[in-house]
Structure formats: C-alpha cells, structure tokens
What we know:
By secondary structure, the chain is α/β, with parallel strands linked by helices. Helix content is 39%, strand content 17%.
Amino acid sequence: MSKEELRLVVITGLSGAGKTQAMQSLEDQGYFCVDNLPPAFIVKFAELCAQSQGKVSKAAIVCDSRGGTFFESLSEALVNLKAAGFHFEILFLEASDEALIYRYKESRRRHPLSPQGRVLEGIYAERRQLEDLRGKAHKIINTTELAAAQLRRQVAELFSEENSLGRLNVSVVSFGYKYGIPLDADLLFDVRFLPNPFYVKDLRPLTGAHALVQQYVFEQEVTREFMQRLFSLLEYILPYYQKEGKTHLVAGVGCTGGQHRSVAIAERIGDFLKKKDYLFSVKHRDAVRNLKGVEGFE
C-alpha cells in the first residue's frame, strides 16, 4: 500500500468533548486506532501502517493534552507527516464551557491542564493551547448538544467509505438567532431581512418545509434575487474549499426563530447541492421549538 492510499485521521480537541466516542466510532468502521499517542511517534506509526501490505488501510490516532509536554510537538509532527508524503485529516472536537464542566463533574475526573485547580481554568488554558490546531482542522464537531450515540453516528457519516474519495460534504443547518448561532458553522447566512411568514396567520403554525410557507417565501422578489446570488456564491467558493483539503463544511442559515425562512432556504440549498453532486445533509435545529402546543406536535 502506498502512502497516498492510507487513510489517516488525527483526533484531537478539548478534554471531555468526546474523543473516546469518536475513536470508538472509527474502530467500528474498521480503523486501526491508537489512543494518546505521543506526537513524536506519529510519522513512525504511519510508516508501519503503510508497510502492513494492506492489512491496515485506515488508521486513527488520538493526541491531546493528556500527553503533557509531549503534546506540544503535535503541530511539528503534523508538518513532518505531510513532508513524509502522508495524507491525513484532523478531526477536532469541542464543546461549550458549561457542557465540559458538567461532564467533568459527572465523571469526577481532574482536568489534565488543571489537576489541582478549577476545571474552568483548565478549559481556558486548553482552548488557548489548541487555538492554532483548531484552525488547521479539516472537520470540527461541537458536541455540546450531542448524546454519545449521536456523536458516534455523526463521525461514522463523516468518515464513511463514500467520503473517503475526498468529496466535499456540506452540512446545511437552519437555526434561530434567538437560540444562538451554531458553534461549528463555517459559513453563516442571515435571512432575517426576508419577509416573515410568522406574521401570516395561516402560516404561523407551519415550518419552512411546508409547501405553503415555501410558496410565500419564494414568491418574494427579494428572495428570488437573494437565491440567485447565494447559488452563484456557493458555486464559486465550494470548489476552493475542496481544493484547500476541506472535506466537511457546515453552512448555517438563520432567521429569528428558525422555523420558517431559514428552513425554507436551507431546503432549497439542499436541492442546489444535490444538483451539483455534493455530499450533503440538511438539518433543522430549531424548527419545532415554537410548535409545542400546536396540533400535531408534543
């Protein structure tokens, strides 16, 4: 097996963000995984995999702050890995401060960067330490609102055999600004300037996935012009993201409540991506938050 044929994933990120779950998901897909590998051994590990005569075609390593002073050489090790002719992807996991603190309290473990102090101090220190590495990541997953099973499923989707061909996978997420911006978004499109179906009595109980809401949204001249410009932008920039080696892109589409306009626009972006033969998914984070009490919703 050549170096180019080996699929190598480097898992890193914040302590408590779910790196173990991510590694287990890759193990289930047949990856040979090593946890807490010192960065100095990364190139040697990759060489052993490449020399395995095809027995190891997919491998993943977890490197994080548990490595102490060894971890500080990770960036240099990745440069050496690239110079040695290996292709790799960096999967970076993160979560909100509140979620990480809760998980540490639940597990009663100490933070590796603050073994004698407050967990929050360790989290702050680790965010600063990982800032540069996060910027180099090919895939970023924010696990704040993900259960363990959801995280494993998302990792499985990102690193499926279909994605091993290097095609760009675009996740389109509709959301409401009143509930906060998706923390893992690479692109953000604010559609609050569009006429709001919320103020149409018959449309208020519906979501942007409903044909009547879509008809209202897309019959507006401003929406039609916006979509033309948006599609032109996406058609221009997506190939450049792929050229730079990015294999997963999160595009957030937001309106006030995440129920009408953002949902309709996200669905239409999904149609566009399908026509352009991109791998994609469309998710509506907040679409039903305001529908409790409406007939048909619990």
